[in-house]
Amino acid sequence: MKAGFGLHAPPSSGSFICDICTIYDTSRFKVMETLPISAIPAEQLDALDKFAATEAGSELRDVLLSLSRCVRDGDEVVVLDGSATVTPNQAAERLGMSRTHLYKLLDRGEIVFHRVGRDRRIRVADLVAFETQRQYDRRELAERFAHQSKTSAEATNEIADLL
Prior knowledge:
Blueprint: E1 2-4, E2 7-8, E3 17-18, E4 22-24, E5 32-35, H1 42-54, H2 58-72, E6 77-80, E7 85-86, H3 88-95, H4 99-108, E8 114-116, E9 119-123, H5 124-162
Antiparallel strand pairs: 1-4, 2-3, 5-6, 7-9, 8-9
Helix pairs in contact: 1-2, 3-4
């Protein structure tokens, strides 16, 4: 297993983010390449940061700064071939779920797939998009629950004040 990160645009955002320590099994997904980063001198990263801040457009700037930050943090850089496909078994393993649950998601249309004969294949880009959306939804749900308990406590205090 290799720890790495992926650069992608989160839902409804124009900026790029760096996933922290996403796990990629490079032995199962031959569509990935781990780039050697340990020998990159700090001076070159400083030059990259300077270029990103002064000369790059906003989209490229966000990508380069995220890349630089992740390299400085010691994360591995894994490049994905987004047009490559994986089997449902590989996708289920990557997502940390059972094949049965993955097939339910495929049948409901939550993950885009195509057929090769009678078999299903999932583009890596579609798998990453699903995982990104799932992480975004989980964060949003957690924030909503955190806010709900605060609102509930405020309502209880307000009712107590009225009594």
